[in-house]
Design a protein that fits this description.
Blueprint (H helix, E strand, L loop, with lengths): L17 H8 L4 H26 L2 E9 L2 E5 L6 E4 L9 E4 L7 E3 L6 H11 L2 E9 L9 E5 L5 E5 L13 E4 L7 E3 L22
Antiparallel strand pairs: 1-2, 1-4, 2-3, 4-5, 6-7, 6-9, 7-8, 9-10
């Protein structure tokens, strides 16, 4: 009767001894390869984050501030929260230069007019009545609602937002502070706010 063959305890294919055999033979185990890759990734993150911060450069306006974070707007990027700096308050320009570790408050320049307009739009608040809707000049543009404030001042509001799709003459627009666009309100403007003046026959909305 032929006896079954058994692998020696130190055979490289024996379960439980593969790892030990690979270590003795100088071969890298799957675990060691994963560990090495993890070290490389971690080192890249630790080294890359400071370098990325040093290379970062931007110019923005502070829209609002909440503790150690501030909400800022850029000309060519979406608004976002970044770490606040002590001197930065809503309405101020903040600049981060390449090679600098921290951003700093800067004097507004002529080229910052768009940033300042964005900040003014964000913090504004009003109640207005739509007196006219102008159709878009091209397929890439939105219709524009001409809305009148209580003092007769007229505003032009682009109707990009989905919430403004039902805008119509006579509807009440309400703009809350710290928001981008007004919202449509079904109720008329409260009497305490005062009703807008009647539109003049040849009055034209400001461009």
């Amino acid at each position: 009767m032929t006896e079954p063959e058994f692998e020696p305890a130190d055979h490289p294919d024996s379960r439980g001894n593969v790892h030990e055999h690979m270590l003795r033979s100088g071969r890298r185990t799957p675990w060691s390869r994963s560990w090495g890759l993890g070290v490389v990734v971690l080192a890249g993150f630790v080294i890359g984050a400071p370098i990325s911060r040093l290379l970062d450069t931007y110019r923005c306006v502070v829209l609002s501030r909440d503790g150690d974070k501030m909400f800022v707007a850029f000309e060519a990027m979406p608004p976002k929260y970044i770490d606040a700096i002590d001197a930065a308050q809503p309405g101020l320009i903040v600049t981060k230069e390449r090679g600098a570790w921290n951003a700093e408050v800067s004097e507004p320049l002529g080229r910052d007019i768009k940033l300042m307009q964005m900040q003014k739009r964000y913090v504004s608040a009003y109640d207005a009545t739509i007196v006219r809707i102008d159709k878009p000049l091209s397929a890439q543009q939105a219709s524009v609602a001409v809305a009148e404030l209580a003092d007769g001042t007229r505003l032009r509001v682009s109707l990009y937002a989905d919430d403004l799709a039902a805008a119509a003459v006579g509807r009440h627009l309400k703009k809350l502070p710290n928001s981008w666009d007004p919202i449509l309100i079904d109720e008329p403007i409260p009497a305490a706010v005062a009703q807008p003046k009647a539109a003049q026959p040849n009055a034209a909305a400001p461009k």
